[in-house]
Amino acid sequence: MVQVVLNVEGMMCGMCESHVCDQLRKVPGVKKAKASHSKNTATAIAEDDVDVSALKSGVEAQGYRVKDVRVYVYERKGLFGLFKKK
């Protein structure tokens, strides 16, 4: 799994966040999406083979500008993850 963080310009309210999340969820392989207009970010948790360019173009098709895209390895942290040795 990967966590894709997009730096999105143009989101002004909760509806903007909703539109961005809807577009992210349409991309095959995306499991979870969230957005924050106050932080200008949108985050997608997805399968390793997700098409990052499709995430970016989907958001830009809604009229927002994606300035930066970062991809991180995502480790699921459940209840028992709190007790995992590091």
Protein model, in words:
The chain is built from two helices and four strands. It is globular, with a radius of gyration of 13 Å. The protein has 86 residues and is of the alpha+beta class. A four-stranded antiparallel sheet has the order 2-3-1-4, with helices on one face. The model has no long low-confidence stretch (mean pLDDT 92). The chain has helices spanning 14-26, 52-61; strands at residues 2-9, 30-36, 41-46, 65-73. The protein has one domain (2-76): 2-Layer Sandwich (Alpha-Beta Plaits). The relative contact order is 0.30.
Write down the secondary-structure element order.
EHEEHE
Proportion of residues in helical segments: 25-40%
Poorly predicted spans: none
CATH topology name, in short, is Alpha-Beta Plaits
Q: Please, how many domains?
A: 1
Summarize the model shown:
This protein has 86 residues and is of the alpha+beta class. It has helices at residues 14-26, 52-61; strands at 2-9, 30-36, 41-46, 65-73. 27% of the residues lie in helices and 35% in strands.
Which key features would you list for this structure?
Alpha-Beta Plaits; 2 helices; 86 residues; four-stranded antiparallel beta sheet; alpha+beta
Layout of secondary structure:
Elements: E1 2-9, H1 14-26, E2 30-36, E3 41-46, H2 52-61, E4 65-73
Antiparallel strand pairs: 1-3, 1-4, 2-3
